[in-house]
Amino acid sequence: MTNALDIKKQKVEEITKQLRSAKVVAVLDLHTLPNALLHKMRKELKSDAKILIYKTSLLKKALKRAKLDSLLPAMKGEKALVISNLDPFRLYKKMNANPLKVYAKPGQIAPYDLVVPAGETQLPPGPILTELKAAGIDARIQGGKVAVGKDSVVAKKGEVIKDVVAKALQKLDIKPFEVRVHVPLAYEDGIVYNEDLLNVDEKKMLSDVAQGFINAKSIALEIGYITKDTVEPLIQKAYRQARFVGIEKDIMLPELMEELMKKAARQANAVNSAVPANAA
Fold first, then answer.
1. Residue 109 gets which letter from DSSP?
2. What is the pLDDT of residues 154-169, one digit of tens each?
3. Which residues, 6 or more positions from 178, have their beta carbon under 8 angstroms from its beta carbon?
4. Least buried of 23, 49, 172, 271, by fewest C-beta within 10 Å?
5. First to last CA, the chain
6. Phi first, then psi: what are they for 119, rounded to 5°?
7. Cβ atoms 83, 68 nearer than 8 A
């Protein structure tokens, strides 16, 4: 008869095999992850990843056997493992593609200016009108229902959300917060990525790269550093400078003759203008 210890060993071996065959292994924080978001994420990742949820002790043993000790520092508290063939960045992005919207709680810090937009609501008149006004909302009765007369800021970015504001936002079904999936560490080909690296703002990154290229090219042109991106403008710059020197020093070259004749004409006109009319 198989005892509990044998079952655990078998399970550890099973997890280890999965870890060894995976391209990417990531640690998933379950502590603040709502079941609704976990279920939703499982469905969305079904074809790209697998979430391994077992006792932390079993997962740790499997990580050691799979020689993934670099992930152990993140295995504290309620954690799971995610195995995937997606690269860590695509995996993280997909895990956080649809964060869960949630209501504000008293005492939380407003992540941005919380604004209740003007317009009709589905709320009937009653005590709710007083509650909304107490939260700083321009509430009024319109067409037999509660309406918001104008956009109302109930909490500025960085302010603590008051109890009356949290209740008012909930009554209006406004969910200003997002619950995101936290991945403390992810491993691929001997490299460990923390969440700061995984949580990349792609638009900003591309913008920074483009600006960096422009700055580097500008410096290269200034110091005359030749690359495939600077060789053409450097030749154009050298040509313009050589042409300027040629005209300045009256160097007789076919391509400069037209400019030199114009220069001579300007100088002759200047001399004629300087001679008095009665000098002749």
1. B
2. 999 999 999 999 999 9
3. 99, 100, 101, 102
4. 271
5. 131
6. 145, 175
7. no
d(CA 79, CA 94): 19
Q: What percent of the chain has pLDDT over 70?
A: 94
Listed range (59-63, 70-74, 264-268) with the worst mean pLDDT: 264-268
| 214 token code pair | 């422009």
What is residue 277's three-state secondary structure? helix
Determine the Cα–Cα distance for residues 175 and 104; give it in Å rounded to an integer: 7
Hey, how many other C-beta atoms are within 10 angstroms of the C-beta on 231? 10
**What is residue 15's predicted lDDT score, i.e. its pLDDT?**
92
Residue 139's SS3 state is strand
- CA nearest 95: which of 158, 50, 155, 151? 50
231-248 and 202-223 helices, crossing angle to 10° = 30
Domain ranges of the chain: 8-99+180-200, 103-177, 204-269
- pLDDT tens-digit map of 235-249: 888 878 877 777 777
Give 73's pLDDT tier (boundaries 50, 70, 90). very high
Task: Spell out the alpha helix ranges (H) of 145-201.
Answer: 163-171, 195-198
Per-residue b/e over 135-159, b at no fewer than 16 CB within 10 Å? bbbebeeeeeebbbeeebebbeeee
Q: How does 192-223 read in b/e, with b if 16+ C-beta sit within 10 Å? A: bbebeebeeeeeeeeeeeeeeeeeeeeebeee
CATH T-level topology, domain 8-99+180-200: Alpha-Beta Plaits (3.30.70)
Q: Domain spanning 103-177 has what CATH number?
A: 3.90.105.20
Amino acid at 130: T
